[in-house]
Amino acid sequence: MDAMKPNILVVDDASNWRITVETLLKSYGYQVTVAANVIEASEALNHGPFAAAILDVRLDAFDDNNHEGVSMILASAHQSYPQMSFIILSSYFSEAEVRSFAPRDAELYYFDKNNLSVELLLNTLNLLVKRNFGREQSQN
After folding, report:
1. Which residue ranges form the domains of the chain, and what is each CATH number?
2. Which residues of the chain have pLDDT under 50?
């Protein structure tokens, strides 16, 4: 892991989204760790910390109502790295629904995949990283 580049965790079961987000973030100088499911995300969290995480809500392509995976990731990541911020991407759940199954004190930013502004996503991530990257470095 390059200690000089902020590390971002990206979790999405859809490979096209994972690859797109990973490629975008790498082009902006971020180090990116990707995971396709809860097991991979849990393993990745053991190798943190991360400046931020970008998480898809639905991690089961066969169940449109599934949010258990991201709920477990949010709880585990927030417990291990309370300073970590989360960007949540969803086209199935509203912001209110997402907030209802996230830890109450987790810093969470919601983006609808159907109306995603890449510019706003990157601006939000940049602000979070500027604030959190120093804290991440002090934990290494």
Report:
1. 7-139 (3.40.50.2300)
2. 136-140
